[in-house]
Specification:
Blueprint lengths: L9 E8 L2 E10 L14 E8 L3 E2 L1 E7 L18 E2 L28
Antiparallel strand pairs: 1-2, 1-3, 3-5, 4-6
Length: 112
């Protein structure tokens, strides 16, 4: 894992609001810099799913609550890390957290 951007992966975005779901984007492709811009026009709970050949699909969500009077100042941004596929029997643990994490402890157990 290199933390480098991944080009040509696809993303789908779904808006969940008032007990309904609406597709905002489906099959949108990242650019050569691994970035993707999808305009959103309303507040709500968004689910982003990212998939690419050779990678394990990932899904993240975020709540968007922008002031309509200042919508130009509202630029929700999300990083969705992708992990390369693993060989059978392999395990990879990845962690991500916000700017000021409160607790970074990891506990692992193995049962034989």
């Amino acid at each position: 894992m290199t933390n480098d951007p991944i080009k040509n992966v696809t993303a789908s975005v779904i808006l969940t609001k008032d007990d309904s779901q609406q597709k905002v984007a489906e099959g949108a492709t990242t650019d050569e810099n691994g970035k993707l811009k999808i305009p959103i026009t309303e507040n709500g709970h968004y689910v982003v799913k990212v998939e690419g050949n050779g990678y394990i699909a990932a899904q993240k969500s975020m709540d968007v609550s922008c002031d309509i009077a200042r919508c130009g100042d509202c630029v929700p941004t999300m990083l969705v890390p992708l992990s390369p596929l693993l060989p059978a029997g392999a395990l990879r643990l990845t962690m991500s957290w916000g700017e000021k994490p409160l607790d970074l402890d990891v506990y692992a157990q193995q049962k034989n």
